[in-house]
């Protein structure tokens, strides 16, 4: 798909193509983006969109693709009316109404899809080993619970009585997600006083080049201090590792990051896999979590490969080859974004989702890096969920998206099973109202 510049579109338009075929069609899910607007201007008599994920978050994304393919059919009031059909909401806890409305919306969606979509499932064209899902709920320890509850209480106190607390709510949600993952993602060990002492020492003994500052003027010193104050405990731990002669004494207690319950569970799983000859991919959404896991595996004397958004494209393929060709390496760490598409890692048969995405399709695509042609073993996807936290709410929402997707795609013979599956898997509490047709197909493809 050409999308980089308007000049590209102008050049293609001069060709006056009869047919235009667009790969990675999910990039056209939002009509408000420049990609959508630019490509819509490319004239052609016939359009085909290829995508494995025509809907990632809601049915309006599907309508956007259909409007792109048939702009004269899906336009104006017709498009607005169709959007309205799929915007009804229902309380998540009201499972009966949720299921009833889901059936109605699913029927409408399938009716719209049928004339325009050619679809095939992976199991229709490939004979792959089974893929199974395992959910592991991890309890918080006292330290983590204190942190989590403190953030929760602080948000409730700040937002009480506010007419519009949506911005605070979004920030609190992210802070709670971090607290559910690992306490070292916050700054608690390194107090302001400790940081001031560290800056005094570094300013006296290090060159500007070592500190990545322009000079030792007071204004740069203040900026450097403020920067350190904005870092997490683990970020500052990494700085202490880089300059141990000067500030090593201020560091976190050695291997204290391994005490976090999720990290302990990860180590337990990996050590078990080593004994069994299994190999695993570990996915996280956050580079800062990857930093924690790198040190964890290093000090546990566990070999690993590593692929994150920080790694250049040129360096990625050698790292993939190193993992695939070396069975003595049991773990491959990947950020979900960097490892979500285009990778073949069938040397692994276990996938650990250390922290999940809001969009379940991201995690499905990530897990499929091991469940593809060349895989000879059963693949297990393990999701680590911290008990009684926002992670449970995210999980509930993702389950519903995937189950509704299965129904929309026609992969559920009895639509009653949508309600049954939601009931069976809604184990972790109640979340907010959600769009009952907010779906993300797990294996849809156009052919």
Folded structure, characterized:
It is built from 19 helices and ten strands. The protein has 447 residues and is of the alpha/beta class. It folds into three domains: 6-122, Tandem AAA-ATPase domain (Rossmann fold), CATH 3.40.50.10810; 124-143 and 258-435, P-loop containing nucleotide triphosphate hydrolases (Rossmann fold), CATH 3.40.50; 192-251, no CATH class. The strands form three sheets. The protein has a six-stranded parallel β-sheet, sandwiched between helices. The chain has a two-stranded parallel ribbon with strand order 1-2. Strands 3-10 form a two-stranded antiparallel ribbon. Helix 9 (192-205) crosses helix 11. The radius of gyration is 25 Å and the shape is globular. InterPro entries: Helicase_ATP-bd, Helicase_C-like, P-loop_NTPase, SNF2-like_sf, SNF2/RAD54-like_C, SNF2_N. Residues 262-447 form the Helicase C-terminal domain.
Structure summarized in a few sentences:
With 447 residues, the chain is α/β, with parallel strands linked by helices. It has helices spanning 6-15, 34-40, 59-69, 76-85, 95-113, 122-125, 142-159, 166-181, 192-205, 208-211, 218-229, 233-242, 244-247, 261-276, 287-299, 313-325, 360-367, 390-408, 416-425, and strands at 19-22, 46-49, 89-90, 131-138, 280-284, 304-307, 331-335, 350-353, 379-386, 434-435.
């Amino acid at each position: 798909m050409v999308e980089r510049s308007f000049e590209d579109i102008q050049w293609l338009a001069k060709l006056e193509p009869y047919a235009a075929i667009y790969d990675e069609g999910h990039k056209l899910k939002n009509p408000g983006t420049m990609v959508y607007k630019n490509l819509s201007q490319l004239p052609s008599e016939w359009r085909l969109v290829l995508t494995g994920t025509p809907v990632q978050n809601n049915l309006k994304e599907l309508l956007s693709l259909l409007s792109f393919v048939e702009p004269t059919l899906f336009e104006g009031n017709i498009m607005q009316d169709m959007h309205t059909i799929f915007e009804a909401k229902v309380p998540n806890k009201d499972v009966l109404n949720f299921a009833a409305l889901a059936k109605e919306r699913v029927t409408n969606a399938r009716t719209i899809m049928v004339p325009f979509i050619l679809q095939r499932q992976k199991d229709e064209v490939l004979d792959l080993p089974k893929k199974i899902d395992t959910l592991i709920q991890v309890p918080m320890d006292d330290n983590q619970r204190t942190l989590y509850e403190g953030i929760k209480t602080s948000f409730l106190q700040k937002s009480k009585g506010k007419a519009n607390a949506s911005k605070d709510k979004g920030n609190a949600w992210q802070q709670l997600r971090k607290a559910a993952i690992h306490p070292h993602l916050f700054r608690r060990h390194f107090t302001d006083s400790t940081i001031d002492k560290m800056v005094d020492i570094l300013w006296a003994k290090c060159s500007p080049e070592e500190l990545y500052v322009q000079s030792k003027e007071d204004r740069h010193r203040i900026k450097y201090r403020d920067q350190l104050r904005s870092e997490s405990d683990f970020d500052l731990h990494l700085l202490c590792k880089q300059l141990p002669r000067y500030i090593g004494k201020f560091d976190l207690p050695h291997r204290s990051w391994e005490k976090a319950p999720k990290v302990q569970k990860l180590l337990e799983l990996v050590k078990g896999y080593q004994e069994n000859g299994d190999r695993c991919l570990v996915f996280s959404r956050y580079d800062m979590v990857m930093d924690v896991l790198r040190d964890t595996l290093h000090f546990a004397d566990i070999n690993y490969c590593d692929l994150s958004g920080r790694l250049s494209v040129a360096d990625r393929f050698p790292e993939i080859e190193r993992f695939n060709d070396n069975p003595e390496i049991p773990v491959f760490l990947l950020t979900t974004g960097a490892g979500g598409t285009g990778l073949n890692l069938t040397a692994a048969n276990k996938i650990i989702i250390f922290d999940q995405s809001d969009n379940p399709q991201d995690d499905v695509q990530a897990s499929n890096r091991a469940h593809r042609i060349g895989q000879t073993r059963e693949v297990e996807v393990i999701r680590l969920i911290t008990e009684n936290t926002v992670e449970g709410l995210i999980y509930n929402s993702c389950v519903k998206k995937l189950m509704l997707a299965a129904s929309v795609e026609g992969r559920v013979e009895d639509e009653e099973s949508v309600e049954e599956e939601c009931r069976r898997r809604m184990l972790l509490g109640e979340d907010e109202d959600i769009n009952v047709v907010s779906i993300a197909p797990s294996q849809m493809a156009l052919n």
